[in-house]
Design goal:
Topoisomerase I, Chain A, domain 4, 4 domains, single chain, zinc, elongated, three-stranded antiparallel β-sheet, 524 residues, transferase, six-stranded antiparallel β-sheet, metal-binding, Helix Hairpins, iron-sulfur cluster binding, Palm domain of DNA polymerase, alpha+beta
């Protein structure tokens, strides 16, 4: 069987932050639409044109088709050629038209997509949340079946019915359809619209100087014209409009999304960047998401204040914001400095029955160490970090290796420079005070009565949270008295809150304040 030759179209974007509207248009079920529109199927393919020509010259009726030899019915081939009932794919594979023979895959997909439309319509009239969830799941399952049909034809290693000629025809026609749509937009009269990015079945159209309402109107015109330019059932849909968009590179972008012109507030929509990636820690996602919102609204002063405040007070965030959760890939080299491997080995040493499985995500955290320490030597598992209160989070590592590089990938496109130097001392305990001094008070707040009252109120709030945590944990364990510190469910939100309360600086702040005159606060 020959190797596949066709690739989907993925344009190299012009890396930039766009403040003008960017219209995102998407072909509805592109590959199923190609199969139906052009009658692509195992039962309708004759083979590649050069093979048919060679067959005619050598007077041999068999050619290689997919994974097997195929005997071409010459009379039927001649009849289709004479009646012009053949269609050639972009890579010159010949298929018969629907008027000659309806393919099995197109017939199957028509029924699947028709059933999905029927199920989606019934969702609107369904009574009860349970029935609606069932119907919604069914229509998503039907959508999945339709979208993976192309995969059945191209799975030449593990599949049961691969056929390169059919797979390349589907992929090539989808690429050709997207290219024609891009040409139509760039050469058409759409208010100076320009395609700045295209990916498989979608394209991003920049409309410089347009308002949100004008962008939606232009997007609908483009969708209508492209749909008319293609056979049924190929449909181009207007998905959304970005009022502010950053294109980093292929498959890495984010935008301030509006799904209709009536939406008053946008929503951050991202793909491939740290705000949605599972291999980074929550603090990176949160800082980047908030920064993008400020960038898209051009609030440069707010961005500066936010980053300065957030980076200076990273130590005040809960430890759960610094937990990485990366996939364990099983076997590693003996000297591989991989955090997942180190944590997995420590788990296996404690209990061989709890060895992580391949594909399992392993949480870990990076702690402070000596100046010459390597990152791998500072990696700790969550139970190890929680049990040792002397371990502190490596704030400088998180800021300079993860947070700032993620921000700079965006700000470098704006010619903005982010410089931040970590303070040697911790910031003052008082909210909003960025003065660094002796931990945990600066020279001004250490005598301030309002600062002392804030610390006391923080302890009071934490005591209420401790009581709530104990009640919730006792209810979960079905025991009136339970030891919170012995609980090993580190994924539990109550356990996470309890561990964060244990590491709170509030009690230390009260004791080190100059207005503290007695020791009536317990250490429970």
């Amino acid at each position: 069987m020959e190797a596949p030759e066709q690739l989907q179209l993925i344009m190299e974007p012009l890396s930039k932050v766009y403040f003008d509207p960017v219209i995102v248009l998407d072909f509805q079920s592109l590959y199923p639409s190609m199969i139906i529109a052009y009658n692509y199927c195992f039962s309708t393919v004759f083979g590649k044109v050069f093979q048919l020509e060679r067959m005619a010259r050598e007077k041999d009726n068999s050619i290689q088709l997919g994974a097997m030899k195929y005997t071409v019915p010459k009379p039927e081939l001649v009849d289709c050629i004479s009646k012009k009932k053949l269609h050639c794919s972009p890579l010159s594979s010949a298929f018969v038209s629907q008027s000659q023979r309806k393919g099995i895959l197109p017939t199957l997909l028509r029924e699947v997509l028709g059933a999905r439309i029927m199920v989606k319509a019934s969702v609107k009239h369904a009574r009860g949340k349970r029935l609606k969830r069932i119907l919604e799941a069914r229509q998503l399952a039907l959508k999945l079946v339709a979208n993976v049909t192309y995969g059945y034809t191209s799975a030449n290693f593990s599949g049961r019915m691969p056929c390169v000629e059919v797979a390349d025809a589907i992929l090539g026609k989808g690429r050709e359809t997207l290219e024609r749509a891009i040409t139509l937009v760039n050469e058409g009269n759409y208010g100076g619209a320009q395609v700045i990015y295209g990916d498989t079945d979608s394209m991003f159209v920049l409309v410089a100087g347009a308002t949100k309402a004008e962008a939606f109107a232009i997007g609908r015109r483009i969708a209508s014209d492209v749909t008319k330019d293609n056979p049924t059932p190929v449909v181009l849909k207007l998905e959304k409009v970005y009022m502010g968009c950053v294109l980093e590179t292929k498959k890495r972008y984010a935008g301030w999304m509006f799904e209709s012109e009536d939406d008053e507030e946008g929503v951050l929509d991202a793909k491939g960047i740290e705000t949605i990636r599972r291999d980074t820690c929550p603090v990176v996602a949160k800082v980047l998401e908030r920064s993008l919102k400020l960038i898209f609204t051009r609030n440069w002063r707010g961005l500066s204040v936010y980053l300065n405040t957030k980076l200076s007070r990273l130590r005040d965030l809960p430890y759960t914001d610094f937990v990485f959760s990366k996939e364990f890939r099983g076997e590693y080299a003996e000297n591989a400095a991989v955090p997942q491997r180190k944590v997995a080995l420590s788990i296996a040493a404690d209990s061989p029955a709890h060895i992580p499985l391949r594909g399992e995500r392993i949480p870990y955290i990076v702690t402070d160490g000596p100046p010459e320490a390597t990152v791998i030597s500072c990696v700790r598992s969550l139970p190890e970090f929680i049990s040792d209160r002397n371990l502190q989070i490596h704030i400088i590592y998180y800021a300079h290796v993860h947070i700032l590089p993620a921000l700079r990938r965006v700000t470098d496109l704006l010619l903005l420079t982010i410089r931040w130097h970590a303070e040697v001392n911790s910031p003052c305990f008082t909210p909003g005070c960025l003065t660094s001094g002796s931990d945990p008070w600066c020279s001004f707040c250490v005598d301030l009565r309002s600062a002392f009252q804030y610390a006391l109120s923080t302890i009071s709030r934490e005591e209420r949270l401790r009581a709530i945590s104990r009640i919730a944990c006792a209810h979960c364990q079905k025991q009136p008295l339970c030891d919170m510190n012995r609980c090993q469910n580190h994924a539990c939100s109550i356990k996470k809150m309890w561990n964060s309360l244990i590491r709170s600086r509030a009690r230390s702040a009260v004791r080190k304040h100059r207005l503290y005159a007695h020791t009536s606060i317990s250490d429970s």
